Known about the structure:
The protein is α+β, with helices and mostly antiparallel strands. It folds into three domains: 2-200 and 214-301, no CATH class; 308-387, no CATH class; 390-447, Arc Repressor Mutant, subunit A. It is 37% helix and 21% strand. The chain has an eight-stranded mixed sheet. It has a three-stranded antiparallel sheet with strand order 4-3-16, with no helix packed on it. Strand 5 and strand 6 form a beta hairpin. Helix 7 (333-348) packs across helix 8 (353-362) and helix 10 crosses helix 12 (418-429). It is elongated, with a radius of gyration of 30 Å. The relative contact order is 0.10.
Amino acid sequence: MKPVIGLEVHVELKTKSKMFCGCSADYFGKKPNTHTCPVCLGLPGALPVPNKTAIEWCVMLGMALDCNIPLFSKFDRKNYFYPDLAKGYQISQYDEPFCLKGSIKLGSGKTIRITRVHMEEDTGKLIHENVNGQGITLIDFNRSGVPLVEIVTEPDFDNTKDVLDYLKKLQQIARYLDISNADMEKGDMRLEPNISLRSNTTNTTNNTNQQITNKLPNYKVEVKNINSFRFVEKAIAFEIKRQTEIIEKKGIPVQETRGWDENKQKTVTQRVKEEASDYRYFPEPDIPPIRWNDKKLLMIKKQIPELPDTKKRRFQKQYNISQYDAEILTREKTLADFYETCVNDGQKANLTAKQVSNYIINKKIDIESTLPAEIIKNIKALTIYLRIDESEIKKIVERVLNENKNAVGDYRNGKVSAVQYLIGKVLMVSKEKLEVSRVKKILEEKLND
């Protein structure tokens, strides 16, 4: 059996206010139900007002993912009844989303097709507690109405390695655009794989040898709200095993929504999966359609910074560093910017970009607590150590050994500490700063010869 996997990823935008009201969107860690108003609580008569910045950020993300941006778009009501949805419906997008038909190219060279990128509002958060020995569920509406972008792929994945590569690239792009922290521990980025299995075999027509692509399976299982790369990998592996066992017994897995239970290391049933018709979508009557023009879209496009893959290729070419080094230095935009500042400062001190990259990567520099000037100073100190070649150091060592026969004798008679005395003598004779470890190594080689 071959896995067929598609992904839905929800990314919370870090706007100051919520999607359709003026409440603060900075809800994480705040006292429950303190960031709410009649709009995000769905009270009668309250009307939504779209967040302009959130919409533009959604479009910017779509552009960064090579999507087409239709000139006409609208919001829709997605109707379902669940405790964390105060209005009884979610303002989302159905048939006219902001972004369509994009793609991401993976490190393996495979292209993952993106079906759509659309805008919606987040729901409240259910909190399961035990009060007086009784299990109860509480609701915190602070998150309700926070701007949420959903990125939906085609079912182009057949292994978890590609899934993880895609998710990390998507997280990296959102952070480069500075539209989301994409911090999964805080729920900024939530992962929902759709998993099914199909036969590995392919069919051929009777008249020709042309292969017919297998149709997609007639079911899919969605695992909701996973907040960890490691958990999504485990959930997919578990589902493949679970579904394989069902199919091998001539059964068909139920099309349903499941959740990942980390304690039990398994997925668990949540509800039978709905179809689009179950949500009774219809255009949101309180929000006019959104119409774009080329001038406005060009203004948004100009706000997109150099993206990770482009920056990585430029670093390799401009700074003559390896693909491996460029990949490390561009993982975070802050690190890439720090590196370029160090390179520019280093050029004034006759340091190469390669020297700077080697130091930052090998020393695992904390850029939050280290200034570029400090990096340059440290690299210069190291280059002074390395300026004297091995043969010159050996000459100095020979001289010191000839002039300090007693210390040599002490060392060879078992007094190991005598080497420290000899190191000191070498450093005194040398007119340049020497790296102590190099001096010690050469001395010990001579003394033990």
